[in-house]
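In keeping with the milestone schedule agreed at the kick-off meeting, the structural modelling team has produced records for the first pair of proteins. Each record is given below as a sequence line and a structure-token line. The laboratory manager (R.T.) confirmed that both were archived under the project's standard naming scheme.
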Amino acid sequence: MAAMAHDSRFFRCIGARFFAVIFTLLLVGAGMLALPLLGQSGQSGPSSGQQQPAEPPDEAGGPQNDVGPMVIPKKKDEPPPEEKPKPPRKPEGMPEYSLHVEATLVNVPVLVTTKDGQFIPGLKAENFRVLEDGVQQQISGFNQTQSAPITALLLTEFAANNYFFIRDSLTAVNAFAHSLKPDDWIAVMYYDMKPHIVVDFTQDKQEVFGALHQLQIPTWRETNLFDALYEAIDRLDRVEGRKYIILISSGRDTFSKLNYDQVLKKVREARNTTIFAISTGQWMRAASTTDCTRTSIDVINPCSDVRMNYLQADNQMNTFAHMTGGQAYFPRFQAAFPEVFADIAHSIRNQYIITYHPTNTRQDGSYRKIKVELTDGDGHPLKVHDQKGKDLKYLIVARDGYKAKQTVE
């Protein structure tokens, strides 16, 4: 019994020591495992004495990682750069233009003839005195044209109204075509209900005659003179230099959209354009009113309307011509037409061209009246004598005035 008790104490002592060794080994192993974790946490985590950096705001931008959002500087909100205005696109084919200012220069063609229509040559600049609105102007340029080529538009009435008007028109245009020279530029238009361009400006006389041969059978009865003359002047405004309108017409207007005042304003504003008017149907007019008896109260006479219409037509033709420095002709017989056009050609090719800078420099669009006088150099009226020493009466033909330029503000 004593031996068994001794053995049990031995085994309890060995078991206690065995469990103590096992427990010690477990503690050492746990400590060795804890050391790497403490070192890693000491490196990644801040110490208690260090200040933790501020957490970046959510609007800092950038993707998220394990420790928070990566801080990427955000661009400042700047206004977009202002776009410079692009220059206007120039249409293809348009030439380059430059802006320049010119002093106002007025050209005044002057025709000086005897009462018989003979041109008076040999005059000098000191023989002319030009008045604008009553104020004398200083002549800066002077020239005499002799046999100079012309640029003219032939505008003729061609309507189904009366045989005598048609016959006179065709006779007149053919007489004019035969008076042309090789260097002349001519265009042909006719009008009835509306104006028609038969041939544009050309120096080929055969082309002009071919165009005139197309005038065979008229269609419309209307004679819209005002519309046709307005369009003719408007087209000639685009042509440089001196231009002439040879107007062959009865002078009557029947159905124009424009009225007399409107076309008269256009005639006044025409620059470097002279109108020569040739009336048609004069013989028929005289024959149609021969049997009309005049009464003290002419308004009740049925012929009074006919007379009034013809008188008004002649007055319109006179006004168009004289306002632009031209002349009006009223031939009664067909045989007189060649002589009329010979006189027109002589007047156009033999003129005095006077230029001056107006003393009134205002560009207000006003109408300035012009008056041309002949002097002997000492301020006295010029006297012209024939070969026998007799005094000759002369005629000065010049435009009535011009319209000043209008300044655009």
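The second protein of the pair:
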Amino acid sequence: MLSHMPPRPRLVRRGPGDAAPRLRAAGAPRLPRQRATRAPLISELLKAGGRSFSFEFMPPKTQLEEQQLWRAIRQLEPLKPTFVSVTYGAGGSTRDRTVRVTGKIAAQTSLTPVGHLTAVNHSVAELRHVIGSYADVGVRNVLALRGDPPGNPNAEWVPHPRGLRHADELVRLVKSSGDFCVGVAAFPELHPRSPDAESDTRYFVAKCRAGADFAITQMFFYAEDYLRLRDRISRQGCDVPVIPGIMPVTSLRVVEKALELGGCKVPPDLLDELRKADEKDDKAALREIGVGYAAALAGRLLGEGAPGLHFYTLNRSRATREIYQLLGLGMGASGAAGGRGDRGSSEGGMRGSPEGPMGGRAVPPSGGYPEGFAPGGEQSGSFAPITA
């Protein structure tokens, strides 16, 4: 059995009143011609009243990575996420692969895909081509990001001479191009280029006023950083849902890469425990520590009223499935905010406070660990961050 292969495409019959498939924009990546069923907008799903649970994948570079990606998609699809997203490499380096994978998910699975789009190294004409490519395969949800400079994310950001300078401009471009729902990035620890919290909040609100429908945060380890971000935004009269991004740490390399790219704060106690496990080459213990911490953090956020969770999967499914189990989310956790197909509320779904084993009662003490997380305790069970 070829478990890495995507599901067989669903046949969609066109009725007499259906429009013919759209023509591919000149210069845009070639995509499957199959006409996808109408995918819901993320904004519609969030307004339905449930919480959003979503997964992020990266476009594969090799055949082996392609197999791993589809294996993870097949294993996570039964959880019925609200949506899944596919990242866009620095400087648009994975543009064709990102659009191809996103289109294949739209055409060949029951999942609702969100395509990433970055402004860096792209002219406005090129950006329009990519937007048209997404539309051609039925992708109606886009995560609009300014993006990092290719090669060195901390290098000076230089706009394309015929491109855009800021993420809010990209939001307007996507919104003006058709019936799209647009998401943007949010930064609990501030964007690395923001001089202070006030300016960071101002830039975020500008993206929302440009038309953003929802936001996903960069990974973080302290619930208080997310809560402070939410309070800052709310004080500006902005009610756009901000979904926290969760990165389960399953290797020390993940933490080191996060520190290198985003400079995020890692709790000292957590880092010490991870390093001890790494020094002993105890992969099982390291995994248990990282997954347990992520589950406790997720429980705290849900208990504080977060509109859902967005998991950075690194094209692996196990850690996300373990967190689902620890939180008692079960199948179809998104409830009313499900994706395509039969996504109604399930008995194991969450609509109010979490009722799983860690629930919403986990509170991080001053030492850094969420309550209910103990390194080595009772829990069982390439980094691509989003950029403004």
